Structure formats: C-alpha cells, structure tokens
Fold these 2 entries.
Entry 1:
Amino acid sequence: MNLRKIDKRLLTILLIVFVQMVGAAMALPILLLYAQRQFEIPPRFNTLLLSSFFAAQFLAGPVIGRLSDKYGRIPVLIISQIGTVISFIMIGAAPNVTVLFIARILDGITGGNIIVAQAYVTDITPPAKRTESLGYIFAAFGLGFVFGPGLGGMLSAAFGPRVPFFMAAVAATLTVILTWRTLTETLTPEQRIKNRETRRGGMAPAEVLRNAPLLAILLIAFIGQFALGMLQATFALFGDAVLFADYSERIVDLGIGILLTTVGLSQFLTQTLLIRRILPRFGEANLVIIGGALRAVGMFFLAIATAPWFGIVGSIFFPVGMGLMMPPLQALSTRAVPDEVRGGVLGLYQSTVSLATIFSTALAGTIFAINPHYPYWLGMTLSLFAILPAYYFLRRPLRQPPQGTAVP
C-alpha cells in the first residue's frame, strides 16, 4: 500500500474498521467461553448466540445497505456503530442468558456498519481497484485480530471475563467519534434524492434470479461462509476440548487468543502483501479457486488436530484462503449491478453470508457435541465444493460494466 497515493478517506475508513475490529476481537472470541462458564450454557445452545446475531443481520443487512444509498453513508454508519456500543455494554453487564441474546440480536440489527463501510469504499474507488480496496478492508479486519484476541485473553485472565466486553464498547465508541469528526459523505444530495426516488427498494428477487453472475457469486459466498461458520462457532470450544485439553482456564484463554492472533496476522499479510502481487497475474476468478483450496487445507489440519501445533497450521492456511477468496467475490458483486444499488447489493451479499452463518452456527454446536472434529471435516468438504461454481467465471468472465448499467 502506497500511503502517499492512497485516498485519505480510505485510510480513515480503514482506521475506523481496525479500531472496531480490535474491540470485537477482544470480546467475541471469548464470548462462548464466557457464556459457558458464567451461565453454564451447553454447546448446542451456546452457538445459538452466534446464530441469533447473524439471523438479525440477515434480516437487517439489505435494509441497512439500502438506507445508506438513500440517506447517505455517514448517518447510517454512526447509528449502526452506536448499536454496537450498546450491545457490548449489555453483554458485559448481563445478569442472565436472556440479556445475552437480546444484546446479540441488537448488534445484528445494527451490525450493518461494515456493510456501509464497504459501500463507502466502493463509492471512492474506481471499479478496477475495488478488489484491492476491499482487500484493505479485510486487512484491517486481520490487523484488528492481530491485537484484539491476545489483548482480550489477557484482560479476561487478569481482570475477569466481563472486562473485555466493556473495553470493546470503549473501542466502538471511538469509532463513532472518528466517523462523526473525520469522514465526509460520499453520496451527493442529488445522488441520494435519485436513489430515494427510484422505484425499487433494492434488488427484487426476480431481478437477482435473472442476474446469473450475481447468483454464482452468492452461491460461492454461501458455501464458503458455511465452512467459516463451522469454525467461528466451535473454535473456542474446540481449543478448550481438544487443542488445550487438560490446561488451566488461563492457558486456554491465552492459547486461543494466540491462535486467533495468528489468524489475524495471516489475513493481514495476505491482504497487504500477497493479494496485490498475485491479482494481476491470476485474476479474480482464479483467486476464488485458490482461496477455496487453501481454506480446505486449513480445515483439514483442524479436522485431524490432536495438539496445539495443528491449530497453528490451520490458523495460517484458512485465513490466507479466506483473504484471497472474499474480496474478489465482493468486488465482482458490485460490478454485476447498477451503481445506484451498490449499497443494496453489498447488503444482499452480507445477508447471503449471514444466512449461511445462521445455519452453520446453529448446526455446529450439535455436530460438535457428537464429535469435536466433525465440524472441520464438514467445513473442509464444503470449502472444496465451493470451488466448483467458480469455474463459471473462468468460462464466462464478468465484464466490467459501464457506469450505471448492469452486466447482461
């Protein structure tokens, strides 16, 4: 990344995403252990904490994206960030399981802040550069996970399991201030009026079904995300039961934090160094295929894991694959629709991802209860299966559409 040439607005949005992800990474990796230890929730119900978040995000995602098209990115971004602040405070102060679920649902409803941040980036980036710029968003995600999980593990070990959630709320509050004070609106008043006056409130189902490239993108994203959901829902529990079995709770928390830091560092290096170098050579469709294969390798090492070093290998291959696969998919989705519904299609993409995560996280606890390794065998199989639709792009590559027109 050449900081002298990059748009300052992109740097600002990346900083906002980074700060938010540091906060989320401090809290979310230990959420399931927190619920298990404080409220004695069994695994098959524990993972529903993740499912409830993604179910709410699935319903709210397209609405949040479309509202940002109609009323501007900044106001919607600020409101959604405030919802995240409130949800983390509720989790940290939760007296019972009901409050935990309410907090997760609230965060899911207002969790369109990343969708809006991605829409903001596509507004300020020409189509040819969108994969690279969206890659920087994933790099900010990864960098947040470099610092967040270890910090959250240390805070939990030193001050108790509720402290990371309050610190996450502080980080989310900081993103509200940064957005309010530093970002400028990317949609002009004329654009917002045009978007509000358009007949459609987004993309109609029939319109999506007629858009073959977009359908292929959404199918790949769904299958790939289902595998990720298996990992998200069970990784902390898997570390406690398998990778760090017979260790103390403090070592378990720190060990899981270190592995997630490895995930974040691998993803960050992929987005900042690797993807920029190989994208011109291989192209977006090939990166989707390569990324799917690497994700499958990462899942394989977790599926056969019996010791922490297996987790390290899996924590390198899986995020590298994810980092190569997801930005091209998102960039392709914004090129498959007219410009005035970019926010809406990113919301649709996020809802597809959320739908996959709803089902995978809801099932993961039950599958984990049968055998802790089974979610990773299933994730490996699905990661390989997600490669098949990507050949659609090799046979019929997406053409970059003229501004304001859809791909036929």
Note: Confidence is low (pLDDT under 50) at residues 397-408.
Entry 2:
Amino acid sequence: MRPQKQTYYRRIIIAAGVLCLVYLLLFIPESDAPGTVAVNRPAESQPFAWKQDAFWRALEGEFQQTRELGCTSARERIISQLFFLNHMIDSLDDRNLPPQDAFYRDLEAALFETAPLVAACPQHLNAFSDAVNRMRMQMKRQSLRWDMTQSPSRITLYRLLYGGRAAVEEVMLQVPPQFALQPLMMGVDEPSQTPWASILGVKIHSGDMLVSRGGAATSALIARGNDFAGNFSHVALVYVHPKTHLASILESHIERGVTISSLQDYLQDIKLRVLVLRLRADLPAMAADPLLPHRAAERALERAQQQHIPYDFAMDFSDSSKLFCSEVASAAYRNLGIDLWMSLSQISSTGLRRWLAGFGVRHFTTQEPSDLEYDPQLQVVAEWRDLETLRKDHIDNAVTEILLDGAHIGEPLHYNRFLLPLARLAKTYSMILNAFGGVGPVPEGMSATSALRNQWYTSLHSRIKRRLEVQVQNFMNEQGYMPPYWRLVEMAQAIKSEFGQ
C-alpha cells in the first residue's frame, strides 16, 4: 500500500477514534448528587388528600337520579338547597370563626351536595356560581385573622376555595351551551390608586398579578406538583405607564428568563385560565403608601430593562439573582416590605422531590403559583375560563395526577440515554446563543439530562392524554355527560397501566 493511502486511512481511523471517544465522554451520565441532599431532607408536612371517593361516587349517583326524575320534581329541593347554602354564607358576615370550627365542614358539605342537583338542572347555575363567588370573598375575609403558617388554616381555606372552584367547574362541564356561564367571573373590585389599563373588559392596575395556567404538560405538573394541588402554573406582574396607560407584563419563562411583553403578546400564549389578584387597600403598608404596588412594578420593570435575569430552576425564592415566575412578583414586593405567600408551598413527597430534582429543583419549600390565591393579603379581582379550555384543563390534570401517583410510590423519571450526547451538543449550541442574547433548544440553566427528562415526561403525558380524550368522547356519547374528575383519574390510571408504566 502506498504511503499516501496509509496516511489517509490512518487519519480516518484517528478521526473515527476521536469521534467515538467524544461520544463516549458525552454519554457519561451526570451526577444527581445536588438533588439528593434536598430530596432526603425531612418533610415538614404531608400532601393533602380528600379521601372521599365514596362521597364523589354518591354525588354522581345523585346527579344521574336527578336527571332521570326531571327538574320539575327536583325544583323545590334545589331551591331549598341553594337557600340553605346562601344562608350559611351570609351568616359569616358577622362571625369570625377559627379555621378548626365545624361550621366550615358543614359549609363544604352543603356546597358539594348542591352541585350535582344544579348540574342536572342548569337553570340554577348562575345562582350557584354567585353563591360560590360570595363564599370565596367571605373565606378570604375570614382568613385575615388566621395564622396561615398553621396547617388547619391552610387546609380549611384550600378545601373551600379550591373545592368551590372545582364544584362550579364540574357543573359547568355538564350543562348545555345555552346555560353556559360567561368566561369572565368578576370578584372584588378592590380600590386602587395606581395607573390602570383594560384587559378583556377588566380594569387591571399597576402592581396587579396575573396568575395563569399554561397548556403544556409541564404547566400541569407545576400546578399539581405540591402538597396542595392547584389550578395555576404561572405568575406575571403588571406595570401600567401612568401617562400612556399602556400595560407591560413582567414574567419569567423557562426558555428566556425574565421578559417584558405587551398585553397582546401575553394573551397570545396558550392559557387555560387567568386570575387577577390585587393587594388589599386596607393593609397598613397600603394606607401609608397607596402607590406601593406601582412602585414595586416600576422597580421590577427597570431591573428587567437594565439586565438579563435568568430563570431560577432551583426555585430558591430567597435569592433574587435568578427568578422563577413567582419570584418576579414576590421579589418586587419584598423590596418594599410586603411578603407575599404568607403560607409557603411544601413539596413533601420524597418521590416527587426526586422527580423535581431531576428537572433542576433544589428547594422544596417555595412559592408555587397556585398558592398565591390563598394569601389573605390579596383580593381576587376577576377570573377568565371557558368550557373548551376547562375540559382540556381537567383532562391534563387527570393525566398529571396519575403520573404524580407514580412519583409518590417511587417510579423513576426516565430519559433516553442514547440521546444524551446529542442533547449535550444542543446544550453547548444553546449556551453560545445565550451568550449573545439568543434562545437555544435547551433553556439557559437547564442541563441536557433535565431537557431529556422533560422530553420523556411530555411524551408520556401526551400519549396517555390522547387515549384519554378518545375515552372521554366515548363516555359522553354513551352516558350523555362529561365524566366527573374522579372518573377521569380512574380512566387515566387504566390507560397508564396498559402502557406498562
């Protein structure tokens, strides 16, 4: 063989060897050690569980029976039940009860027992929705006197606020289109002296917070993945210019970190629901400075304009050098003496901690978006939701619920290891783009392995969801109504078992 050919083949062999070596180096899994310490810390609480399966089945039976008997025969009973529910809510006007009082469990029972009757006879839906809305206002007022760091306070408020929303939404999903509620539900028109703008028929003020639920599988995971499963996955802070009345929305995205967007851009992202929260005007700090929310939003805006703020995957709300979505609001207000999230979120399940550590989370006592609603310092101003997105929300939640059940019992969060070298190359490319202000395929601050775990989780969620949507449609064709949430969870669990997961 000629020397030139020998040299040529030698170079090919060396190049192939180098490529193989690089591939093998890129194939080496990263250590999960940083998450192990956080995961093994003693849990400070226990996940909330309703533990009322028999009750939910009985309520569905009540719904079916009322449908068969007809609304004429059920009319007097429904009116009586609504009267009793409203009477209980009105009685809170001049009462200040501790969270352990048995009255609240009686109120909860009246709420849930009324729901299936209204679902069968939807002409009473508006009255039921109004009652639940007033109950929410009363419970927010009652909780002002409670210690929200204590478990009884948190549980009572959660059972009635989350439970009230769940009851109304179960009814909404059953009613014919002509009885459907309007997408906008108004809450308390809390007075504010800060600049305002209009969004979908509602005045939003500078310093308001927009709490929303995204349409991605990971959005459902954020909403449901803590000790008190919630409905929201994202928090944004509103700034309104005092002269132009143009609103800017400050939020932190996994892909880009903190961003400033217009209302139009904010609404273009898929949102299954949006809640408007506003600081109470009667707080001492607000009485001393009514423009405090505007100043908080203004400072947050100025910082975002002056520097790039990465996303905080660790969820460390005590360090504001990086910000996850909740921190955008909490850091802005903390700088002016207002501590939001009077009751911090706990993630006590060891299995779920391991999952979240696999995504980069390092702090499991933190500020979850859903829990901001339960802060007594804030009033609910308005909420948007409609039937189409509500069905998607419930199906997403059911799939997420059974995946989280797997996490709780120790099922691992997988990823395709054979894709790790490619993911690491994508991460390197992303880091180069990040250095020049761009956005790459792997978010800044997320490891290549975490990105693959996210891909695996999203894929599994989508597969189960597609099958569940077919089964839901079949159920509706056969039974004539949307399966209630507890049935969705059972159906999703059966599908997951079929997949061998």
Note: Residues 53-181 form one domain.
